[in-house]
């Protein structure tokens, strides 16, 4: 038995699915600026959680 054009059809379907994907966000920031922005957002999120729960938020990393 041969696969016929099954592979070719699947490639076409995969290409059609790929077209709908969004491109990565390019906001013109350097990697350092992106990290700083993300760090501030995470700190604000942790502070908000502490304020609402009354518990201390941790990063989940254990110190050695």
Molecular structure report:
With 64 residues, this protein is an all-alpha fold. It is built from 2 helices and no strands. The protein has helices at 6-19, 31-53. This is Small EDRK-rich factor-like N-terminal domain-containing protein. Residues 1-15, 24-51 have a biased composition (Basic and acidic residues). InterPro entries: SERF-like_N (IPR007513), SERF1/2-like (IPR040211).
List the keywords:
single chain, 64 residues, mainly alpha, 2 helices, elongated
In terms of topology, how is this protein built?
Blueprint: H1 6-19, H2 31-53
Protein name: Small EDRK-rich factor-like N-terminal domain-containing protein
Biased composition (Polar residues): 53-64
Biased composition (Basic and acidic residues): 1-15, 24-51
Main sheet? none
Listing every helix as H and every strand as E from the N terminus to the C terminus, the arrangement reads: HH
Structural class of the secondary structure composition? mainly alpha
Number of helices: 2
Q: What amount of the residues lies in strands?
A: under 5%
User: Roughly how many Å is the radius of gyration?
Assistant: 23 Å
Termini separation (Å)? 59 Å
The poorly predicted ranges are none
The overall pLDDT, averaged over residues, is: 81
Q: Tally of extended strands?
A: 0
Instruction: Summarize the amount of helix as a percent range.
Output: 55-70%
* Global outline: elongated
Described by its quaternary structure, the protein is single chain
Protein name: Small EDRK-rich factor-like N-terminal domain-containing protein
Family: Belongs to the SERF family.
Organism: Sphagnum troendelagicum
